[in-house]
Amino acid sequence: MATGENLRVLTSMRFFAALWVVLFHYWHDLPGAPGLPAFIDKGYLGVELFFILSGFILCHVYRAAVEQGRFQYGDFLWKRLARIYPMHIVTLAGMGVMAMTATVLGFRVDPNILSWSSLPANLTLTQAWGLATTAAWNHPSWSISAEWFAYLTFPVSAWVALKFKNRPLAGLVLAMILVVALNWGFHAATGKLLTLATIKWGALRIVPCFVYGCALYGYWSARPAQNRTRAGLGALISGIVTFFFTVAGLPDSLIVLGLGLTLLFLAQLAQTRSAILAQAPLVYLGEISYSMYMICIPWKVVFVDTMTRIVKVNDGNLTFGLWLVLIFSLILLSSISFHLIEKPAREWMKLIGGGRATQQPAPSST
Fold first, then answer.
1. Rounded to two decimals, what is the model's pTM?
2. Suppose 334 and one of 86, 182, 246, 288 were both cysteines; which one would form an S-S bond, judging by CB atoms 3.0 to 4.6 Å apart?
3. Domains of the chain, residue spans
4. Radius of gyration of the chain (CA)
5. Cα separation of 299 and 319, whole Å?
Protein backbone atom coordinates (compact mmCIF):
# COMPACT_ATOMS: atom_id res chain seq x y z
CA MET A 1 0.00 0.00 0.00
CA ALA A 2 1.25 3.48 -0.80
CA THR A 3 2.11 5.70 2.13
CA GLY A 4 1.09 9.32 2.55
CA GLU A 5 4.40 10.28 0.95
CA ASN A 6 3.63 8.17 -2.12
CA LEU A 7 0.12 9.60 -2.37
CA ARG A 8 1.42 13.08 -3.10
CA VAL A 9 -0.44 12.89 -6.40
CA LEU A 10 -3.67 13.41 -4.46
CA THR A 11 -2.28 16.61 -2.96
CA SER A 12 -1.48 17.79 -6.48
CA MET A 13 -5.06 17.03 -7.50
CA ARG A 14 -6.26 19.51 -4.90
CA PHE A 15 -4.54 22.29 -6.82
CA PHE A 16 -6.31 21.38 -10.06
CA ALA A 17 -9.62 21.20 -8.21
CA ALA A 18 -9.04 24.65 -6.70
CA LEU A 19 -7.92 26.09 -10.04
CA TRP A 20 -11.06 24.75 -11.71
CA VAL A 21 -13.19 26.53 -9.12
CA VAL A 22 -11.16 29.74 -9.44
CA LEU A 23 -11.52 29.81 -13.24
CA PHE A 24 -15.26 29.31 -12.80
CA HIS A 25 -15.41 32.41 -10.59
CA TYR A 26 -12.90 34.53 -12.51
CA TRP A 27 -13.91 33.86 -16.11
CA HIS A 28 -16.43 36.71 -16.35
CA ASP A 29 -13.67 39.19 -15.56
CA LEU A 30 -11.82 38.19 -18.69
CA PRO A 31 -12.14 40.77 -21.49
CA GLY A 32 -14.57 39.91 -24.22
CA ALA A 33 -15.55 36.61 -22.63
CA PRO A 34 -18.90 35.81 -24.29
CA GLY A 35 -19.70 33.05 -21.85
CA LEU A 36 -18.15 30.20 -20.01
CA PRO A 37 -16.57 27.42 -22.08
CA ALA A 38 -18.24 24.12 -21.30
CA PHE A 39 -15.38 22.81 -19.17
CA ILE A 40 -15.01 25.99 -17.09
CA ASP A 41 -18.79 26.22 -16.78
CA LYS A 42 -18.60 23.03 -14.71
CA GLY A 43 -15.89 24.44 -12.46
CA TYR A 44 -18.14 24.22 -9.44
CA LEU A 45 -17.58 20.45 -9.60
CA GLY A 46 -14.06 21.11 -8.37
CA VAL A 47 -15.73 21.18 -4.95
CA GLU A 48 -17.05 17.65 -5.57
CA LEU A 49 -13.48 16.56 -6.26
CA PHE A 50 -12.41 18.10 -2.94
CA PHE A 51 -15.15 16.14 -1.19
CA ILE A 52 -14.15 12.85 -2.83
CA LEU A 53 -10.52 13.46 -1.90
CA SER A 54 -11.52 14.08 1.70
CA GLY A 55 -13.31 10.76 1.99
CA PHE A 56 -10.43 8.88 0.37
CA ILE A 57 -7.63 10.46 2.41
CA LEU A 58 -9.39 10.40 5.76
CA CYS A 59 -10.08 6.69 5.30
CA HIS A 60 -6.45 6.20 4.33
CA VAL A 61 -5.32 7.84 7.56
CA TYR A 62 -8.00 6.85 10.07
CA ARG A 63 -10.00 3.83 8.92
CA ALA A 64 -7.59 1.32 10.47
CA ALA A 65 -7.78 3.18 13.78
CA VAL A 66 -11.58 2.95 13.69
CA GLU A 67 -11.36 -0.77 12.91
CA GLN A 68 -8.87 -1.43 15.71
CA GLY A 69 -10.74 0.59 18.31
CA ARG A 70 -8.01 3.18 18.81
CA PHE A 71 -9.73 6.04 17.00
CA GLN A 72 -9.85 9.16 19.20
CA TYR A 73 -12.83 11.19 18.06
CA GLY A 74 -12.05 14.34 19.99
CA ASP A 75 -8.47 14.47 18.80
CA PHE A 76 -9.58 13.80 15.24
CA LEU A 77 -12.07 16.68 15.30
CA TRP A 78 -9.55 19.06 16.84
CA LYS A 79 -7.00 18.27 14.14
CA ARG A 80 -9.62 18.74 11.46
CA LEU A 81 -10.69 22.02 13.01
CA ALA A 82 -7.06 23.13 13.12
CA ARG A 83 -6.89 22.38 9.40
CA ILE A 84 -9.86 24.48 8.33
CA TYR A 85 -10.88 27.01 10.98
CA PRO A 86 -8.03 29.58 11.11
CA MET A 87 -8.24 30.47 7.41
CA HIS A 88 -12.01 30.50 7.67
CA ILE A 89 -11.96 33.07 10.47
CA VAL A 90 -9.29 35.20 8.81
CA THR A 91 -11.13 35.37 5.48
CA LEU A 92 -14.48 35.94 7.17
CA ALA A 93 -13.00 38.85 9.15
CA GLY A 94 -11.25 40.14 6.04
CA MET A 95 -14.48 40.27 4.05
CA GLY A 96 -16.21 41.98 6.96
CA VAL A 97 -13.53 44.64 7.30
CA MET A 98 -13.51 45.29 3.55
CA ALA A 99 -17.30 45.58 3.42
CA MET A 100 -17.52 47.89 6.43
CA THR A 101 -14.68 50.07 5.15
CA ALA A 102 -16.30 50.37 1.74
CA THR A 103 -19.61 51.27 3.36
CA VAL A 104 -18.00 54.02 5.43
CA LEU A 105 -16.32 55.41 2.32
CA GLY A 106 -19.67 55.54 0.54
CA PHE A 107 -19.17 52.67 -1.88
CA ARG A 108 -21.99 50.29 -2.73
CA VAL A 109 -21.66 46.96 -0.95
CA ASP A 110 -23.75 43.84 -1.45
CA PRO A 111 -25.92 43.82 1.70
CA ASN A 112 -25.70 40.04 1.87
CA ILE A 113 -21.98 40.21 2.68
CA LEU A 114 -22.60 41.78 6.09
CA SER A 115 -25.51 39.57 7.08
CA TRP A 116 -25.27 39.71 10.86
CA SER A 117 -28.07 37.18 11.23
CA SER A 118 -25.90 34.68 9.33
CA LEU A 119 -22.81 35.35 11.42
CA PRO A 120 -23.49 32.78 14.19
CA ALA A 121 -23.86 29.99 11.62
CA ASN A 122 -20.66 31.09 9.90
CA LEU A 123 -18.76 31.16 13.18
CA THR A 124 -19.96 27.68 14.12
CA LEU A 125 -19.40 26.22 10.63
CA THR A 126 -23.07 25.37 10.26
CA GLN A 127 -23.90 27.80 7.45
CA ALA A 128 -24.25 24.96 4.92
CA TRP A 129 -26.67 23.10 7.17
CA GLY A 130 -29.56 25.39 6.33
CA LEU A 131 -28.89 27.51 9.43
CA ALA A 132 -27.72 30.68 7.67
CA THR A 133 -30.29 33.17 6.44
CA THR A 134 -28.30 34.02 3.32
CA ALA A 135 -24.99 33.45 1.54
CA ALA A 136 -22.88 35.92 3.48
CA TRP A 137 -19.36 36.90 4.47
CA ASN A 138 -16.83 34.73 2.57
CA HIS A 139 -19.21 32.59 0.58
CA PRO A 140 -16.76 29.78 -0.41
CA SER A 141 -16.65 28.81 3.26
CA TRP A 142 -19.99 27.02 2.79
CA SER A 143 -17.96 24.02 1.58
CA ILE A 144 -15.86 24.12 4.77
CA SER A 145 -19.12 23.91 6.70
CA ALA A 146 -20.04 20.86 4.63
CA GLU A 147 -16.62 19.35 5.35
CA TRP A 148 -17.20 19.91 9.06
CA PHE A 149 -20.44 17.95 8.78
CA ALA A 150 -18.51 15.10 7.13
CA TYR A 151 -15.88 15.20 9.88
CA LEU A 152 -18.50 15.03 12.61
CA THR A 153 -20.10 12.00 10.98
CA PHE A 154 -16.83 10.34 9.89
CA PRO A 155 -17.10 7.42 12.35
CA VAL A 156 -20.38 6.46 10.65
CA SER A 157 -18.81 6.71 7.18
CA ALA A 158 -15.83 4.65 8.30
CA TRP A 159 -18.07 2.04 9.92
CA VAL A 160 -20.09 1.66 6.73
CA ALA A 161 -16.92 1.46 4.66
CA LEU A 162 -15.57 -1.27 6.92
CA LYS A 163 -18.70 -3.34 6.29
CA PHE A 164 -17.50 -3.65 2.71
CA LYS A 165 -13.84 -4.21 3.50
CA ASN A 166 -13.98 -7.74 2.08
CA ARG A 167 -16.37 -6.76 -0.71
CA PRO A 168 -14.72 -3.60 -2.07
CA LEU A 169 -16.28 -3.81 -5.54
CA ALA A 170 -19.78 -4.09 -4.08
CA GLY A 171 -19.07 -1.11 -1.84
CA LEU A 172 -17.81 0.92 -4.77
CA VAL A 173 -20.80 0.08 -6.96
CA LEU A 174 -23.24 0.96 -4.18
CA ALA A 175 -21.45 4.27 -3.59
CA MET A 176 -21.68 5.08 -7.29
CA ILE A 177 -25.39 4.26 -7.23
CA LEU A 178 -25.75 6.60 -4.23
CA VAL A 179 -24.10 9.44 -6.17
CA VAL A 180 -26.49 9.04 -9.09
CA ALA A 181 -29.61 8.34 -7.02
CA LEU A 182 -29.17 11.19 -4.55
CA ASN A 183 -28.43 13.71 -7.29
CA TRP A 184 -31.39 12.50 -9.33
CA GLY A 185 -33.71 12.41 -6.32
CA PHE A 186 -32.73 15.91 -5.19
CA HIS A 187 -33.39 17.31 -8.65
CA ALA A 188 -36.71 15.48 -8.90
CA ALA A 189 -37.81 16.81 -5.50
CA THR A 190 -36.57 20.40 -5.77
CA GLY A 191 -36.04 21.10 -9.46
CA LYS A 192 -32.46 22.12 -8.61
CA LEU A 193 -29.06 20.51 -8.92
CA LEU A 194 -27.54 19.13 -5.74
CA THR A 195 -24.11 19.97 -7.17
CA LEU A 196 -25.08 23.66 -7.06
CA ALA A 197 -26.37 23.56 -3.49
CA THR A 198 -24.44 25.72 -1.04
CA ILE A 199 -26.09 27.37 1.95
CA LYS A 200 -29.33 25.42 2.19
CA TRP A 201 -28.23 21.93 1.23
CA GLY A 202 -24.42 21.99 1.32
CA ALA A 203 -24.27 19.42 4.11
CA LEU A 204 -26.26 17.00 1.97
CA ARG A 205 -24.17 17.77 -1.10
CA ILE A 206 -21.01 16.38 0.46
CA VAL A 207 -22.57 13.08 1.55
CA PRO A 208 -22.51 11.11 -1.74
CA CYS A 209 -19.06 12.42 -2.69
CA PHE A 210 -17.54 11.70 0.72
CA VAL A 211 -19.04 8.20 0.79
CA TYR A 212 -17.79 7.68 -2.77
CA GLY A 213 -14.30 8.71 -1.67
CA CYS A 214 -14.44 6.21 1.21
CA ALA A 215 -15.53 3.45 -1.18
CA LEU A 216 -12.78 4.33 -3.65
CA TYR A 217 -10.26 4.00 -0.85
CA GLY A 218 -11.74 0.64 0.13
CA TYR A 219 -11.30 -0.67 -3.41
CA TRP A 220 -7.84 0.87 -3.77
CA SER A 221 -6.55 -0.63 -0.52
CA ALA A 222 -8.04 -4.07 -1.17
CA ARG A 223 -6.98 -4.34 -4.81
CA PRO A 224 -3.45 -2.89 -5.04
CA ALA A 225 -2.25 -2.08 -8.54
CA GLN A 226 0.34 -4.45 -9.93
CA ASN A 227 0.77 -3.02 -13.39
CA ARG A 228 1.86 0.59 -13.92
CA THR A 229 0.87 0.61 -17.58
CA ARG A 230 -2.64 -0.61 -16.82
CA ALA A 231 -3.09 1.98 -14.07
CA GLY A 232 -1.72 4.71 -16.33
CA LEU A 233 -4.08 3.77 -19.15
CA GLY A 234 -6.96 3.70 -16.70
CA ALA A 235 -6.14 7.22 -15.49
CA LEU A 236 -5.75 8.49 -19.05
CA ILE A 237 -8.97 6.93 -20.35
CA SER A 238 -11.07 7.89 -17.35
CA GLY A 239 -9.70 11.43 -17.50
CA ILE A 240 -10.53 11.77 -21.19
CA VAL A 241 -13.99 10.28 -20.73
CA THR A 242 -14.67 12.61 -17.79
CA PHE A 243 -13.56 15.60 -19.85
CA PHE A 244 -15.88 14.49 -22.66
CA PHE A 245 -18.76 14.11 -20.22
CA THR A 246 -18.04 17.64 -18.99
CA VAL A 247 -17.91 19.41 -22.35
CA ALA A 248 -20.84 17.36 -23.65
CA GLY A 249 -23.04 18.63 -20.84
CA LEU A 250 -23.88 15.21 -19.44
CA PRO A 251 -25.40 14.99 -15.95
CA ASP A 252 -23.16 16.17 -13.15
CA SER A 253 -23.45 12.85 -11.35
CA LEU A 254 -21.74 11.09 -14.27
CA ILE A 255 -18.94 13.66 -14.23
CA VAL A 256 -18.53 13.12 -10.49
CA LEU A 257 -18.23 9.37 -11.07
CA GLY A 258 -15.58 10.03 -13.70
CA LEU A 259 -13.63 12.32 -11.38
CA GLY A 260 -13.61 9.61 -8.73
CA LEU A 261 -12.43 6.90 -11.09
CA THR A 262 -9.65 9.16 -12.38
CA LEU A 263 -8.59 9.71 -8.78
CA LEU A 264 -8.63 5.95 -8.19
CA PHE A 265 -6.38 5.18 -11.15
CA LEU A 266 -3.96 7.97 -10.21
CA ALA A 267 -3.81 6.56 -6.68
CA GLN A 268 -3.12 3.14 -8.19
CA LEU A 269 -0.28 4.67 -10.17
CA ALA A 270 1.13 5.89 -6.86
CA GLN A 271 1.09 2.28 -5.65
CA THR A 272 3.47 1.44 -8.49
CA ARG A 273 5.82 4.26 -7.36
CA SER A 274 4.96 6.35 -10.38
CA ALA A 275 5.97 10.03 -10.13
CA ILE A 276 3.15 11.29 -12.36
CA LEU A 277 1.69 14.48 -10.85
CA ALA A 278 3.88 13.95 -7.78
CA GLN A 279 6.58 16.49 -8.63
CA ALA A 280 7.48 18.89 -5.83
CA PRO A 281 6.10 22.08 -7.49
CA LEU A 282 2.70 20.48 -8.09
CA VAL A 283 2.59 19.05 -4.59
CA TYR A 284 3.41 22.47 -3.16
CA LEU A 285 0.61 24.06 -5.18
CA GLY A 286 -1.70 21.41 -3.75
CA GLU A 287 -0.57 22.28 -0.23
CA ILE A 288 -1.49 25.94 -0.69
CA SER A 289 -4.73 25.17 -2.52
CA TYR A 290 -6.89 25.58 0.59
CA SER A 291 -5.60 29.12 1.06
CA MET A 292 -6.12 29.66 -2.66
CA TYR A 293 -9.72 28.52 -2.43
CA MET A 294 -10.50 30.58 0.65
CA ILE A 295 -9.03 33.88 -0.53
CA CYS A 296 -10.08 33.70 -4.20
CA ILE A 297 -13.26 35.76 -3.73
CA PRO A 298 -11.84 38.39 -1.30
CA TRP A 299 -8.82 38.87 -3.56
CA LYS A 300 -11.00 39.15 -6.66
CA VAL A 301 -13.08 41.88 -4.98
CA VAL A 302 -9.98 43.85 -3.99
CA PHE A 303 -8.13 43.39 -7.28
CA VAL A 304 -10.99 44.14 -9.66
CA ASP A 305 -12.17 47.16 -7.66
CA THR A 306 -8.63 48.55 -7.45
CA MET A 307 -7.90 48.02 -11.14
CA THR A 308 -11.25 49.55 -12.08
CA ARG A 309 -10.28 52.74 -10.28
CA ILE A 310 -6.64 52.83 -11.36
CA VAL A 311 -6.81 51.90 -15.05
CA LYS A 312 -10.50 52.69 -15.62
CA VAL A 313 -11.42 49.33 -17.12
CA ASN A 314 -14.93 49.18 -18.53
CA ASP A 315 -17.62 47.53 -16.40
CA GLY A 316 -15.02 45.79 -14.27
CA ASN A 317 -13.71 43.77 -17.24
CA LEU A 318 -9.95 43.42 -16.97
CA THR A 319 -7.49 43.42 -19.81
CA PHE A 320 -6.14 39.98 -20.60
CA GLY A 321 -2.82 40.94 -19.01
CA LEU A 322 -4.50 42.09 -15.81
CA TRP A 323 -6.62 38.95 -15.74
CA LEU A 324 -3.46 36.85 -15.82
CA VAL A 325 -2.02 39.04 -13.05
CA LEU A 326 -5.18 38.32 -11.05
CA ILE A 327 -4.63 34.57 -11.41
CA PHE A 328 -0.91 34.51 -10.66
CA SER A 329 -1.13 37.04 -7.85
CA LEU A 330 -3.77 34.82 -6.25
CA ILE A 331 -1.29 31.93 -6.25
CA LEU A 332 1.41 34.17 -4.77
CA LEU A 333 -0.92 35.45 -2.04
CA SER A 334 -2.02 31.88 -1.34
CA SER A 335 1.59 30.92 -0.73
CA ILE A 336 2.03 33.87 1.64
CA SER A 337 -1.17 33.14 3.55
CA PHE A 338 -0.23 29.46 3.79
CA HIS A 339 3.10 30.24 5.42
CA LEU A 340 2.03 33.21 7.53
CA ILE A 341 -1.48 32.17 8.58
CA GLU A 342 -2.69 28.69 7.67
CA LYS A 343 0.30 26.54 8.58
CA PRO A 344 1.39 28.38 11.78
CA ALA A 345 -2.20 28.56 13.08
CA ARG A 346 -2.72 24.87 12.36
CA GLU A 347 0.43 23.91 14.24
CA TRP A 348 -0.48 26.21 17.14
CA MET A 349 -3.94 24.67 17.46
CA LYS A 350 -2.45 21.18 17.40
CA LEU A 351 0.04 22.23 20.07
CA ILE A 352 -2.60 23.57 22.45
CA GLY A 353 -4.70 20.49 21.70
CA GLY A 354 -2.04 18.47 23.47
CA GLY A 355 -1.18 16.05 20.64
CA ARG A 356 -2.93 13.26 22.54
CA ALA A 357 -3.26 10.82 19.66
CA THR A 358 -0.53 8.95 17.88
CA GLN A 359 -2.36 8.67 14.58
CA GLN A 360 -0.59 9.75 11.45
CA PRO A 361 -1.47 13.36 10.53
CA ALA A 362 -3.76 13.45 7.54
CA PRO A 363 -2.30 14.68 4.24
CA SER A 364 -3.98 17.84 3.01
CA SER A 365 -7.53 16.65 2.61
CA THR A 366 -9.84 19.64 2.66
1. 0.92
2. 288
3. 8-29+49-352
4. 20
5. 17
